[in-house]
Specification:
The complex is a heterotrimer of chains A (417), B (337) and C (198). Chain B is α/β, with parallel strands linked by helices and 337 residues long. Helices cover 33% and strands 12% of the residues of chain B. About 1% of the residues of chain B have low confidence. Chain C has a single domain, classed as 3-Layer(aba) Sandwich (Pyruvate-ferredoxin Oxidoreductase, domain 3), CATH 3.40.920. Chain C is globular, with a radius of gyration of 16 Å. Classes of the chains: A alpha/beta (417), B alpha/beta (337), C alpha/beta (198). Chains in contact: A-B, A-C.
Chain lengths: 417, 337, 198
């Protein structure tokens, strides 16, 4: 059914339709509306046979999820930012144990400085945790990916993070098609665990493994992600037959076939980029976009195939690998290995900095002119940076950097954009 | 309370011989049907108090749950010695996740059981969580408190040996004052662990007003079994804190494990009691009060108190702490005084 | 694409207003995207919310920097926040006030503006009267419907029914209806005036 609703609510409805059995909730912006919605659905009886547990921390949220998933219950939680760092040890544990938990990450920056706004640093900090990571471009895709995620997680026995841009998607009201219970049931069968804590068939889960088998156990985790790489497109195809929509998959290409310049990005920024691409196409530029939906497993072959005929690639990412530059770029460049392409990393939208069409126009034009540097920070206020660097050069006790820089910026209340 | 109506006891132990009891009153371990939940062949040290405590506690819980029990286990000695890959000593469904999250994992198991039971996919299965003092009183404390506060249907058992023995005997918040550990060495003006630090989690558990809290030692295994059985008869969050001597960490002889546990209780150093809904409802009385030296002198972790110049003041402080426990928990019968 | 920016303060239902506007547009079969200016939730702090309305899917995710219409729920923001930033020349301005643009000190700013695009609604008074508390968002939305014709009053009423339960919805519908009439009269007055000037 078509609905005009909030992204978080759409996700809550999708999760509810997946017949979850245990949901653990700990509040952190911007994922709160999702678990609030689910809490209400469980309490009101709209979602039945489900335990909704208010836990005392994100670490506990993931730990409760580990316990319930290991007991054979379909389990869901959601988090963001500091929360994912706080649960990090359990995040690795959940994938190490092969537990198909589904978790929404309402992508948000990581502090310090504390910042509640959107970027991808939180999820990408867990890229090596063994979780499958899917990125949503729209609220419709966020909704759909949750349904896909449960199926994918349970088929390969790995946990899945569904990443959606905090606030930009979670708090946006837009049109979504909410499927029926029958559709979801047709797509997603009841959970049949590979392993379960069950008194009728006792097993020990979580044994210590020494050097004699550790590599093999870890390799298996990689093998399962490679299985997921095969499975994700198949599930997307199945999804389409039942729900009639293209959702999920490994990558989404937009006007890349003849493109000389290809922008690579993840998440909701793809929409803005497409609008810019359309305008630049009208002006005669051969430019296209490659959206990465499955960041882990990373679709090296698909990315390479999409990029190989281009002249230049601009990876626009909402993340920063301090000391080297890009996070996604590193992977994209691995996919491009051996291809003689100009590669650019653009770090944009950190901590909620708006990425505007105007800035993107200028950026892509610069890339096409061959003037874009290898690493660019979009719309960086160099005055503020240089002022602080100068302060630190001249004064030993230069004080807390963030506070000084904020003073230099001169914060405007309710600044637009 | 757990006082046995029979006052016989054998020399050297307060354990009543099974042969003198009715079959129904005998230890779970005396039953040929015992589950051996923690089976033989594990890798615990000689004289390990934790292995003994776990065996009795989990078998008693299994007995009470009619064989339908799932255990969650914190990282630590018990986890390491019981599950060297690819072997396991556990005859029951068992999971180890992390060091600090066992109570939360157990919450998750209990939640899953509740749903599965409601759906008719599972019978009435019970949940035990267990960990050492490090995994309980330190790193796992947040999750433990959360589980208590929500009154989740979990029995949490802490095996307290007063330190991080698995990592090489470091101090925990359950390490007693003056004790030597690798991080509280017997050097400087105040050798060993500091006075005035540490926490007694059974009291904190009581402050959560959960239905049942108890302490026990491996010297009184029938008392331990009684408490586990009682706890299993109650729904909601329950906590049992068992003192389990560690020959390695305490610098004690392997054959002294039971003796030391008993002396901890008989000196008043470790109060043995039970509490319901935040109030103490019973104590295991001291039978023959012993001075703290009797307990301390048998452990190398206190050796620095008994050199050429005994640390009389420190010993007196430890005695005062034991006496305080005796007053606070009423550990001495009036007639025994 | 038609873009609306709503300014107000935390607690005045600014975000809800943008959401309801998007629901109203959706009810008319259009695509709409509403989103807040993502801040910590503090009562009384300046808040901005946005709504885009279009006939095809809206992919753009940038904040609305060049709105076609402004709804200002709290006139005390006029000289605190750059509310007019980027407003398209001749765009709609709807202010929650019982004073005139001149009284608010905006005479210079709107000198070249078409009269029928400059509108005021005493929305706080109307919501006090009908709903019993100062929640100006709904009357302003109805006022916007009247002013712009972008959405119909019936769609605003549908949005009210989606967001609120029976009694509160009923009261809000009453407030909306009166606000709609108020702005309709205002525009009629403006065109009458213009006709008189002509």
């Amino acid at each position: 059914m078509l609905k005009q609703t909030e992204g978080s609510h759409a996700v809550a409805e999708a999760v509810g339709l997946c017949r979850p059995e245990v949901i653990c909730a700990y509040p952190i912006s911007p994922q709160t509306h999702i678990v609030e919605g689910l809490g209400e659905m469980v309490k009101s009886g709209e979602v039945t046979d489900c335990e909704f547990i208010n836990v005392e921390s994100e670490f506990a949220a993931m730990s409760v999820a580990i316990g319930s998933s290991a007991t054979g219950a379909r389990t869901y939680t959601a988090t963001a930012s500091q929360g994912i760092l706080f649960m990090c040890e359990a995040v690795y544990n959940a994938s190490g144990l092969g537990l198909p938990i589904v978790m929404t990450v309402a992508n948000r920056a990581i502090g310090a400085p504390i910042n509640i706004w959107n970027d991808h640093t939180d999820a990408l900090s867990q890229r090596d945790s063994g979780w499958i990571q899917l990125f949503a471009e729209t609220n419709q895709e966020a909704l759909d990916l949750h349904i896909l995620a449960f199926k994918l997680a349970e088929e390969v026995s790995l946990p899945v993070m569904v990443c959606m841009d905090g606030f930009i998607l979670t708090h946006a009201y837009e049109r979504v098609d909410v499927p029926t219970q029958e559709q979801v049931d047709a797509f997603l069968p009841p959970y049949e665990p590979r392993q379960a804590l069950d008194p009728t068939d006792p097993v020990s889960i979580g044994a210590m493994v020494g050097p004699e088998a550790f590599s093999e156990v870890r390799y298996l985790a990689h093998a399962k992600q490679m299985q997921a790489l095969e499975l994700i497109p198949k599930l997307a195809a199945q999804f389409k037959t039942i729900f009639g929509r293209d959702s999920g998959g490994l990558t989404h290409s937009y006007l890349t076939d003849d493109a000389e310049t290809i922008v690579v990005a993840m998440g909701s920024i793809l929409g803005t980029i497409k609008d810019v691409v359309d305008e630049m196409r009208q002006a005669g530029e051969k430019i296209g976009v490659l959206g990465i939906s499955s960041y882990r497993p990373f679709p090296l072959d698909n990315v390479r195939a999409a990029l190989q005929n281009a002249k230049r690639v601009v990876v626009l990412e909402k993340s920063l690998a301090v000391g080297i530059g890009g996070v996604v770029s590193t992977d994209v460049r691995m996919a491009m290995s051996g291809l003689q392409l100009e590669g650019h990393t653009v770090v944009a939208g950190l901590g909620g900095r708006a990425i505007t069409m105007k800035s993107l126009h200028a950026l892509f034009a610069k890339a096409i002119r061959g003037e874009l540097e290898r690493l660019t920070f979009l719309d960086l206020d160099w005055d503020v940076v240089n002022k602080q660097l100068e302060r630190e050069r001249t004064t030993r006790r230069s004080g807390p950097a963030a506070e000084s820089m904020l003073r230099d910026v001169g914060v405007v209340a309710a600044r637009i954009g | 309370m757990s006082f046995q109506p029979v006052h016989f006891y054998q020399t050297g132990t307060f354990t009543v011989g099974n042969r003198l009891l009715e079959p129904s009153e005998r230890s779970v371990q005396a039953n040929i049907q015992r589950t051996n939940s923690l089976n033989s062949g594990h890798r615990a040290c000689q004289g390990c108090g934790e292995a003994l405590g776990a065996r009795y506690a989990i078998d008693a819980a299994m007995n009470a749950a009619r064989g339908r029990l799932i255990a969650a286990n914190a990282t630590g000695c018990l986890e390491v010695f019981s599950t060297p890959y690819p072997e396991t000593s556990w005859q029951i469904p068992w999971i180890h996740s992390l060091f600090g999250n066992t109570a939360a994992v157990a919450t998750g198991i209990a939640a899953a059981i509740k749903v599965k039971k409601h759906k008719g996919e599972m019978g009435d299965v019970r949940v035990v969580a267990q960990g050492g003092d490090g995994g309980t009183t330190d790193i796992g404390f947040g999750c433990l408190s959360g589980m208590f506060e929500r009154n989740d249907d979990v029995l949490y058992i802490c095996y307290d040996n007063g330190g991080y023995m698995n990592t090489g005997v470091q101090r925990s918040s359950a390490t007693p004052p003056a004790a030597r550990t690798a991080t509280t060495m017997p050097v400087g003006p105040e050798p060993g662990n500091q006075f005035g630090q540490g926490k007694f989690v059974p009291a904190i558990a009581m402050a959560h007003e959960i239905p049942y809290v108890a302490t026990a030692t491996v010297a009184d295994l029938r008392d331990l079994e009684y408490k586990v059985t009682k706890a299993m008869g109650i729904r909601g969050a329950r906590y049992i804190h068992i003192l389990v001597p560690c020959p390695l960490g305490w610098g004690a002889a392997s054959e002294d494990t039971i003796l030391l546990a008993r002396l901890a209780k008989e000196t008043g150093i470790f109060p043995v009691f039970e509490a319901e809904n935040g109030e103490v409802t019973g104590t295991l009385k001291i039978r023959r009060k012993q001075p703290v030296e009797a307990y301390l002198q048998r452990q190398k972790r206190y050796a620095h108190l008994f050199g050429k110049k005994p640390a009389v003041e420190t010993i007196a402080r430890l005695q005062a702490a034991a006496d305080k426990n005796i007053r606070k928990y009423g550990l001495l019968d009036q007639e025994a005084n | 694409m038609f873009q609306v920016r709503i300014h107000g303060r935390g607690g005045q239902g600014v975000v809800t207003a943008a959401e309801m506007l998007s629901i109203a547009a959706f009810e008319e079969g259009r695509h709409a995207q509403a989103f807040p200016s993502f801040g910590s939730e503090r009562t009384g702090a300046p808040v901005v919310a946005f709504c885009r309305i279009a006939d095809q899917e809206i992919r753009l995710r940038e904040p609305i920097m060049e709105p076609d219409a402004l709804i200002i729920q709290d006139p005390t923001l006029l000289f605190q926040v750059d509310v007019f930033s980027g407003l398209k020349k001749g765009g709609y301005i709807l202010i929650n006030t019982s004073r005139s643009f001149t009284d608010l000190g905006l005479a210079d700013f709107v000198r070249d503006w078409p009269e029928e695009r400059l509108l005021t609604v005493p929305a706080t008074d109307l919501s006090r009267k009908h709903v019993g508390r100062p929640m100006p968002n709904v009357p302003l939305l109805a006022g916007f419907a009247a002013a712009s014709g972008i959405i119909r009053l019936e769609s605003v009423i549908k949005a009210i029914n989606t967001k609120f339960s029976e009694k509160i919805a009923r009261n809000n519908i009453a407030a909306a209806t009166e606000a709609y009439q108020f702005v309709t009269d205002e525009i009629a007055g403006a065109s009458h005036q213009e006709a008189a000037h002509a």
